Amino acid sequence: MLMTTITGYRPEPGRLVEFRATAAADRVTGEPLSYLQENHVRRLLANRAAGRAQSPWLATVFDLPGEFRPDAMTAALEKWLERHPSLLTYFSLGDGGLRRHTVVPAGLETVAVGEVADIPGYLHERFDEGTDPLSWPPFVAGAIVREDSATVYYAVDHSHTDGYSVMLVFAELRALYEAEVTGIPAVLPEVGSYVDACVQERALAAELTLESPEARQWLDFWLSGPPPAFPLELDVEPGRFYSSAALDADVFDAAEAERFSRACKENGAGFSAGWLTALAITAYELAGVEQHRGLAVVHTRDEPRWQSAQGWFINLGPVAFPVAGREFGSVVAGAQAAFDRAQSLARVSLLRVAELLPGLDPQGDAAAVPPMVSYLDMRHAPGAREWASSNVTALVGPGQTADVSMWLNRLAERTYLKAQYPDTPAARTAVPRYVTHLVEVLREIARTGGYRLKHPAWL
């Protein structure tokens, strides 16, 4: 599955149909929002108040061969909603803070949109307007229909999804659709509700104190050095946000990825630790950063019921380890130990720790998104072998940012990197330079099984 911005998406033309939902009943329920959900909604409100453009949704598109059956997709989507209760909720802001509403859907209706000259532009506008977490539904679903095929599109506000959830949409929704067409029931795994995961998260958070070991680990990280930041000059003003730009880079083919993985394993580390090591080496060689300090994405799908559920099952974990004056084996071992610690904190949000310590402000601005790095192994996701033939693609919208985030995605045939950064003249020079060097480091590890660190003065 490739990830691209909506502005770069170029589907085959066709006539558009959409499957639009309305609610028959609506009530405020007592389930809390997760920390990520609450932070996401407050960031959205801050951006709206400041008049900043945003596209806080994730989407996926995929092709279905043959004559498209809108009635079958309508029924499939209705069953999809039944399986994922988070999609039946939205949020409102009242005197008591953010509240969750739960709806009873009245069903979906098929709406003929017709021919659209600028399909990406239309989808961008529909996704921006139709995925509001403060109203229901928080998703947009439809299809670009042609005589012998269709491209299904589905976008949902980030509060109800994550990168892995987006990967799950194709196989499950296609199975539900085919079941309606053939009359043979779909065989799908049982799933839990992300709403229940939010309740569980808040219950665990309520038990946390400043004396809890997990809180101490977060505080030790946050108070022991500067906040995580991109190591090269971006020329951004404090408190200001910039239109985001994106950069993609091929990193490995299948054989190179295996060699990289083997080099990490031979030093007692995994692929994620190798990725963190390459980031640390790049910052050291280009900017003299002697200790890596960053935020890594870690998952919270720690029970079988969450494995196939739609929801935001991730957290950010702190990673810190030295790089200066060390050999590759020592650096990657330190990265693995740091990543293990980050994973142990997967259920502990820094936002909860900040609640316990007045004055600790990890964001600085309600609209800010912290710089993060992610590694996602997509090879074993349901339907992954058919992604290429079905043109399965993840879509993201443009937005505004003040720092750099990076994603490394591993497919069966290739591993690629995507970076998002503020579109300033300095960043347009610094980020490509950084990514070029980072890819060279990753490939050198794959090629030789190690890496000989260069002193920054040599460059």
Look at the structure and name the CATH superfamily of the largest domain: Nonribosomal peptide synthetase, condensation domain
Please tell me what the overall shape is.
Answer: globular
The order of strands across the largest sheet is: 1-12-3-7-6-2-5-4
Share in helix: 25-40%
N to C succession of SSEs: EEHEHEEHEEHHHEHHEEHHEEEEEH
Instruction: Look at the structure and give the CATH class of the largest domain.
Output: Alpha Beta
Quick check: average pLDDT? 94
Radius of gyration: 22 Å
Number of domains: 2
Characterize the biggest β-sheet: 8 strands, mixed
Class of secondary structure makeup: alpha+beta
Counted beta strands = 15
Terminal Cα span: 36 Å
Explain how this protein is built:
The protein is of the alpha+beta class and 459 residues long. The protein folds into 2 domains: 2-197, Chloramphenicol acetyltransferase-like domain (Chloramphenicol Acetyltransferase, 2-Layer Sandwich); 208-384 and 398-458, 2-Layer Sandwich (Chloramphenicol Acetyltransferase). Helices cover 36% and strands 27% of the residues. The strands form 3 sheets. It has an 8-stranded mixed sheet, with helices on both faces. Strands 11-14-15-8-13 form a 5-stranded mixed sheet, with helices on both faces. The chain has a two-stranded antiparallel ribbon with strand order 9-10. The two termini are 36 Å apart.
Topology:
Blueprint: E1 2-5, E2 15-29, H1 35-50, E3 57-65, H2 70-83, E4 89-94, E5 97-115, H3 119-130, E6 139-145, E7 149-157, H4 163-182, H5 194-206, H6 213-223, E8 242-253, H7 254-265, H8 271-287, E9 291-299, E10 314-322, H9 328-344, H10 350-356, E11 373-377, E12 393-396, E13 400-401, E14 405-410, E15 414-422, H11 425-448
Parallel strand pairs: 1-12, 11-14
Antiparallel strand pairs: 2-5, 2-6, 3-7, 3-12, 4-5, 6-7, 8-13, 8-15, 9-10, 14-15
